[in-house]
Specification:
The chain is 14% helix and 49% strand. The protein is mainly β. GO terms for molecular function: fatty acyl-CoA hydrolase activity.
Length: 119
């Protein structure tokens, strides 16, 4: 999260929002935000939403991520919103949206696996 310059702007049980100011390092050759960066923001949002619902000594990792790109991300700021659809003991089913300056650029669904603390 810190490597791409993202910050969490809202944290609530089962829901988070994150933002990143778009820099040249986030863009591909045509000036759009790179698809990998958009996917990273979706993964970050879904994953942190899942983290809000597990005990402090537990973690989550991405088991599955599917991203649909709807529009090119052109602008000054990416905003990712992630939420948990269903939480379980071992898996959390999540969704995320990535917006660029108020325009929806991607929609994602993710499965996050819950990691228990080492015995």
């Amino acid at each position: 999260m810190h490597h791409v310059g993202a910050d969490l702007t809202l944290i609530a049980p089962g829901r988070i929002e994150a933002e990143v100011v778009i820099g040249e390092q986030h863009k591909q050759q045509r000036g759009f935000v790179h698809g990998g960066m958009v996917a990273t923001m979706a993964d970050l949002a879904a994953g942190f939403a899942a983290v809000t619902l597990v005990p402090d000594d537990y973690g989550v990792v991405t088991a599955d991520l599917r991203v649909s790109y709807l529009n090119p991300a052109v602008g000054t700021k990416l905003t990712a919103i992630g939420w948990v659809l269903k939480s379980g003991r071992r898996l959390h089913f999540c969704e995320a949206e990535v917006w660029c300056d108020g325009k929806l650029v991607a929609k994602a669904s993710a499965t996050m696996a819950v990691i228990e603390p080492a015995a």
